[in-house]
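Case study 2.
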Amino acid sequence: MTMIRTLRRRSLGALLVLGTLAAWPGAEAIAQQVKMAEAARAALPAKVRDGGVLRIATSLQWAPFAYRSEKDEAVGIDISLMKLIAAKLGLKPEFDDMKFPGIIPGVSSGRYQVGVNQLSMSPERLNAVDMVPYFDTTSVLLTAKGKPVPDLANLCGMNFVVTQGSVQVRQLNQLSEACVAKGGKAITQQLYPSSAETLLALSNGRGDAFLTATPQGVYISRVNPKVELVKGDVPNVERSPAGIALEKGNAALRKAIALALASAIEDGSYKAILEEFGVANAAVPLALVMKSAE
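Prediction:
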């Protein structure tokens, strides 16, 4: 049985941002029906294997990757994939719900074995933790309903709402530097401590827009009537896969996680979960995952 520690009810702000969110029973069933990957389990550090639990840090405010259903259960792409990987390893997944900026420090300190929340594999994160890639996608913009539609090719001078510690901070800094280099106005940012607070700020008309990965943009625009999705991908945004964060230098655990994910790719269970959420085009190739097992 999956364990969820730090059980916290969604705030009114999160409800206003996300609306009533359903679970994905198909993805849940897929994660529960897989066969254990013997090679992946054998690669686990003995302490983890003997302990029987995979401790996972996440933030349940980021649909469709990790959030709470109307039944107050942890659900989403990342949740289903980590249940799948835990099953491949013969472990019981145990999720801790926390503020987004605390995920990487929690993993790097060894408090958690893995961290997930659509964490882009940025240079800064790779300096702090090891990562196994599992998801890749483009970026889009969300605006509050009624706001002027921005020109995706020219974001100079705009003010963005951004979650502290997210990859979008760096992406917007890079876009801003390009603006200034061309003689344009810098892009400014309003930082918020959690995804729910960032999206609530956007819904309330603060800032001009919100930069996010395509699956979030599509999902949020469908469940939140106060925001709109700007048509098209944002050009010139640095793109890097999202990864499962692991303690730096823990080669055995990195190999085990990579082999578990590789097994899920090979038997089709990984693709089946992505298809269940409608994001199959964001799958990463087996060869990329296997590099993490080296």
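The radius of gyration is 19 Å.
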